[in-house]
From TrEMBL:
Pfam families in alphabetical order: Glyco_hydro_28
Family: Belongs to the glycosyl hydrolase 28 family.
Name assigned to this protein: Polygalacturonase
InterPro entries xrefs: GH28_Enzymes (IPR051801), Glyco_hydro_28 (IPR000743), PbH1 (IPR006626), Pectin_lyas_fold (IPR012334), Pectin_lyase_fold/virulence (IPR011050)
GO BP term, pick one: carbohydrate metabolic process
Gene Ontology MF annotations: polygalacturonase activity
Keywords: Glycosidase, Hydrolase
Organism from which the protein derives: Aegilops tauschii subsp. strangulata (Goatgrass)
Transmembrane segments: none
């Protein structure tokens, strides 16, 4: 593992490889013989003006690249590899960080390719550092989980995110935005645009019942706010299920906008499922769920395009 703490970081190469030799860690984790947590391959902590580029990361024991409490981070031109059955080998996880750009990366791992986070339950709430001002573009890859995700640890809040020009294949989810009761925090002002999917189980999943808790001290009444999410210009083939949007009964997801989403499969694509959600859908196939066909959310959806 490489750790940088505080200051300016430049980690660039000529496609050299950082090998985490993760198989020994994965085996211990799978057997339940690991007495401590696994390390990330590259951890940036309390750093600013960081550049990570032109490198190959492979076989991380745990998450590959984890900027936490950072600002002004550029991650570009990376290849990140791990077997699909390697546990928790997320590609890039910006966490409680601001002004982050991730671009032109090819990622194939055993977990989410890119996952934006901001702290876990009461610890993330106490820290109160959101992830904000994040741009993600031109990402290609494959995962048994999600290509692009937010969460599920979002207790410090995630806002003002743009993810565009994404190409995911042979994956579990195209886009997965996830949180849970007890998280608190917020997920808001997220735009995902220009996505191409091939052989993906769920095109889109936005769910309020994902992820466990670190201990029993979390506040069961801390409900997250999920508001102002726009997903547009998505084309998918060999899709099994259109998607699920499932809010929390006492904290319904609001202003969800789906636009120009076309999902096709070799068999009929299973329909959308929705609950505790409001918003609008424009030019969506298969036909959107009734919760997104009312006129109440139409003005937000039209204005966000």
């Amino acid at each position: 593992m490489i750790v940088f703490v505080v200051g300016t970081v430049i980690c660039a190469g000529e496609n050299g490889t950082i090998d985490g030799q993760g198989s020994v860690w994965w085996d211990m984790w799978k057997k339940g013989t690991l007495p401590f947590t696994r390390p990330h391959l590259l951890e940036l902590m309390d750093s600013s003006n960081a550049i990570v580029s032109n490198l190959v990361f492979q076989d991380s024991p745990f998450w590959n690249i984890h900027p936490v409490y950072c600002s002004n981070v550029l991650i570009r031109n990376l290849t990140i590899l791990a077997p699909h059955d390697s546990p928790n080998t997320d590609g890039i996880d910006p966490d409680s960080s601001s002004n982050v750009c991730i671009e032109d990366c090819n990622i194939s791992t055993g977990d989410d390719l890119i996952a934006i986070k901001s702290g876990w339950d009461e610890y993330g709430i106490a820290c109160g550092r959101p992830s904000s001002g994040i741009t993600i573009r031109r990402i290609t890859g494959s995962s048994p989980f999600a290509g692009f995700s937010v969460g599920s640890e979002t207790s410090g809040g995630v806002e003002n995110v743009l993810a565009e020009h994404l190409n995911f294949y042979s994956s579990g989810f195209g886009v997965h935005i996830k949180t849970n009761s007890g998280r608190g925090g917020f997920i808001r002002n997220i735009t995902v645009s220009d996505v191409v999917l091939d052989n993906v189980r769920y095109g889109l999943r936005i769910a309020g019942d994902v992820g466990g808790h670190p201990d029993e001290r979390y506040n069961h009444s801390a409900l997250p706010i999920v508001d102002s999410l726009t997903i547009k210009n998505v084309q998918g083939q060999n899709i099994k299920e259109a998607g699920l949007i499932k809010g929390i009964p006492n904290s319904a997801f609001s202003r969800i906008c789906l636009s120009n989403i076309k999902l096709h499969g070799s068999a009929p694509v299973r329909p959308w499922k929705c609950a505790a959600v409001s918003g609008a859908a424009l030019d969506v196939q298969p036909s959107p769920c009734t919760e997104l066909t009312s006129t109440s959310g139409m003005s937000f959806c039209t204005n966000s395009l």
